[in-house]
Automatic annotation (TrEMBL):
Substrate binds at residues 183, 219, 222, 266. It comes from Altericroceibacterium endophyticum. Residues 16-139 form the CMP/dCMP-type deaminase domain. This is Riboflavin biosynthesis protein RibD. InterPro entries: CMP_dCMP_dom, Cytidine_deaminase-like, DHFR-like_dom_sf, Eubact_RibD, RibDG_C, Riboflavin_Biosynth_HTPR. Pfam families: dCMP_cyt_deam_1, RibD_C.
Amino acid sequence: MLPAKLLKRPRAVISKDDRRWLTIAATLAERGRPSSAPNPAVGAVLVKDAIVIGRGWTQAGGRPHAEAMAFAQTGQSARGATLYVTLEPCAHHSERGPACADLAAEAGIKRLVVGVTDPDPRTAGSGMERLRAAGVEIALANDPACGMSLAGYLCRTRYGRPHITLKLAMSLDGAIATASGQSQWITGDLARAHTHRERARADAILVGGATLRSDTPQLNVRLPGLEDHSPERWVLSSHPTPDGWHQLPAVEELGRMAPHQYLFVEGGSSAAASFLRADLVDRLLIYRAPILIGGGKSAIADYGLDDLASAHNIWSLSARRQLGRDTLEVYDRTPCSPE
C-alpha cells in the first residue's frame, strides 16, 4: 500500500510519452541485474525538450545509483528537465553516497515521474515528498514494466524472499526424461543458450537433492562473455551438500537466501512441486520440444492439487517465442507487482 500522505493526493496525469520513457528506463535497469545486489537494479532517464540528456542504471555493488549516473552526465543542463526513474529516488543518507532525492533537488529538475514507490521504510514516499517540497512536479505511475523490472527487490523487501522463476524443459507430453532417466538433450542448442542467459540474470540457482546426486549439474553460465555471471548454486535438500553448494533444507526457509533477489529453480520434478505446493513460484519458463516420449518422467511431481477449479486463473501467458524448433512460453503471476 502507498503511504497515507500519498493516497490523499490527487493522481497526476501519466501520458503515453511518460509510459514510453518509463519503459526505456526499465530496459536500462536490466543492465544492472543482478550485479547491483544487494541494491535494486534501477533505471533512470533525464529528458529535456523530448531529448535524452542523461541516463543511468544501478552499477555493480549498488553504487552509483541510476539517478547519480544520469546526473553526472548532465551538469547544469538538468535544470528544468524531467527525471523518469523506475523506483522512487532514495531519501536516506548513506556513507556510500548521497540521497538521490537530494541530488535531484539540487539539479533543479522540473518534474519527476516515478514508476514504483519504494517499499523500503527509509524512503517509502519520503523521496517524492522531499522533491515536492522543493517545488518539483511529482507523478507516480504504478507502471507494470517498472514493477516487473524490480520484481526481485519488491519480493525481497515486501515478503522477505527472492522472486522465483521455475524453469521446465519438456516434451510435448510433459516429460523431462525418458522412463530410464535419460534427459540430455530434450531441447536444442538455442533453448539451452536461452536458459544460460536466464541463469546469468539470477543471483542464485537451485536444484533438488535427487537431481544433484544423479546428474551432478554444473549450473554455470556457458555463454561467451558471461561466464563470470554464474549464479550461486543451491540445493533443496536436508542431506549434507558438496563443496561449492549452499543448502536450503526446505522452501519455508527461503530467509536463508537473503539478500538474493532472483532465484532460478531448474530441477527436478520434486523440487518444482515443493515450490508450487508452497505457492512460491512467480514466473514459469516452459521450453517445449517437438517430441513425444510417452511414459517418461513428469516435469512436476504431485503437489497436492485436489480441486481442478483452483488451478485456473493463476498464470497469465506473457510471452511466446520460437527458439529453433523449440517453443518458449513465459507465464507470470502477480504477487510482486506494484501495489
